[in-house]
Amino acid sequence: MEHDNSLRADLGRRVEAVLAGHDLVTGDPVEFHRARFDAGLAWVNFPEGLGGLGLPRELQLFVDELFDAAGAPDNRSQTNGIGLGMVAPTILAYGTAEQKQRFLRPLWTGEEIWCQLFSEPGAGSDLAALGTRAVRDGDDWVVNGQKVWTSGAHFARFAILLARTAPSLPKHQGITYFICDMTDPGVEVRPLRQITGEAEFNEVFLTDVRIPDSYRLGAEGEGWRVANTTLNNERVSIGGQPIPREGGVLGPVARTWREHPDKRTPELHDRLMRLYVEAEVSRYTAGRLRQKVAAGQPGPEGSVLKISFARLNQALSGLELELLGEDGLRYEDWTMVRPDKVDFAGRDAGYRYLRAKGNSIEGGTSEILRNIVAERVLGLPVEARGDKDIPWKDLER
């Protein structure tokens, strides 16, 4: 306990020093975040010189609370969720010293936004069936293929990319993981308009894109191993985020309930109470998951939270429409725009209802995640589910 208090006191002094050197109102947010990174207060569990201090991960929450209380600016965390939640821990685990020095700091500061070039038209849930090819040409790799459902590709500077480098090998063994510069020749981004009317997703076409071998992340042919680190962190980042009571989609639904007493019914009240309890259970479970992550690497438990996140969002947004009646059928704006973030709480009920439909697909389909939970959390044999003829371990996404 005394050691922990000493660490917190030291961190408090470091936070005060960063805050004292910057005007949080009129100063440059990027300069502030550069200073925070250099002070080791970006990810305290990362090594010194890479945004951290080599401390236990659970101390990050203490640091974040101090900065939040002081009114520190955000580092584009909603826009760069892929970079902060998925790319950074993958680069830390598999990147070279040069890659860590090159990418982690501008990723943290929000100067460089990242996207994820994994899924393909014929390889979504069965990600290992991907067909994008990378062929070695001297010190470069020449990449050709198509990716789809790429969030933020229209404003991202870099992408994490999976490509097949040894097509003669079994599908998991012939994959390599790359960093792709989205501004390079041959990278074409096309919008995918969604049921909401917006296009936050994209399809990306790669035509003779040259990627230097220095942008390969991990060993050649070891892309599947690297990708699983990314995917585990993805599920934690989606399902394990800290949420206050009545946070997320529950907040506007509860507010709608309070503001429309004339539209309440016993049946809707019963459903709302059940969902409220489930949301609280999920919130506390996410807290336990964050504690486990703080003690080591994320495991398959993140899949449980991701399933719960999708189910609750869809059930709550559907209940809100029923509560609003005909008012819930109105939709604020169908203009085709390309947003840089998803804002459930700041939009109307119609948007929440439509956008929540994608929650059970993006970040790993609920069906595939249930298989992961069954095998890796509950320890159920494949035969117990009657799936012995289906290679479920291939279905990672």
UniProtKB/TrEMBL annotation:
<dbReference type="Pfam" id="PF00441">
    <property type="entry name" value="Acyl-CoA_dh_1"/>
</dbReference>
<dbReference type="InterPro" id="IPR009075">
    <property type="entry name" value="AcylCo_DH/oxidase_C"/>
</dbReference>
<feature type="domain" description="Acyl-CoA oxidase/dehydrogenase middle">
    <location>
        <begin position="115"/>
        <end position="209"/>
    </location>
</feature>
<dbReference type="InterPro" id="IPR052161">
    <property type="entry name" value="Mycobact_Acyl-CoA_DH"/>
</dbReference>
<dbReference type="InterPro" id="IPR013786">
    <property type="entry name" value="AcylCoA_DH/ox_N"/>
</dbReference>
<keyword id="KW-0274">FAD</keyword>
<keyword id="KW-0285">Flavoprotein</keyword>
<feature type="domain" description="Acyl-CoA dehydrogenase/oxidase N-terminal">
    <location>
        <begin position="29"/>
        <end position="111"/>
    </location>
</feature>
<protein>
    <submittedName>
        <fullName>Acyl-CoA dehydrogenase</fullName>
    </submittedName>
</protein>
<dbReference type="InterPro" id="IPR036250">
    <property type="entry name" value="AcylCo_DH-like_C"/>
</dbReference>
<dbReference type="InterPro" id="IPR009100">
    <property type="entry name" value="AcylCoA_DH/oxidase_NM_dom_sf"/>
</dbReference>
<dbReference type="GO" id="GO:0050660">
    <property type="term" value="F:flavin adenine dinucleotide binding"/>
</dbReference>
<dbReference type="Pfam" id="PF02770">
    <property type="entry name" value="Acyl-CoA_dh_M"/>
</dbReference>
<dbReference type="GO" id="GO:0005886">
    <property type="term" value="C:plasma membrane"/>
</dbReference>
<dbReference type="GO" id="GO:0016627">
    <property type="term" value="F:oxidoreductase activity, acting on the CH-CH group of donors"/>
</dbReference>
<dbReference type="Pfam" id="PF02771">
    <property type="entry name" value="Acyl-CoA_dh_N"/>
</dbReference>
<keyword id="KW-0560">Oxidoreductase</keyword>
<dbReference type="InterPro" id="IPR006091">
    <property type="entry name" value="Acyl-CoA_Oxase/DH_mid-dom"/>
</dbReference>
<dbReference type="InterPro" id="IPR037069">
    <property type="entry name" value="AcylCoA_DH/ox_N_sf"/>
</dbReference>
<dbReference type="InterPro" id="IPR046373">
    <property type="entry name" value="Acyl-CoA_Oxase/DH_mid-dom_sf"/>
</dbReference>
<comment type="similarity">
    <text>Belongs to the acyl-CoA dehydrogenase family.</text>
</comment>
<feature type="domain" description="Acyl-CoA dehydrogenase/oxidase C-terminal">
    <location>
        <begin position="221"/>
        <end position="378"/>
    </location>
</feature>
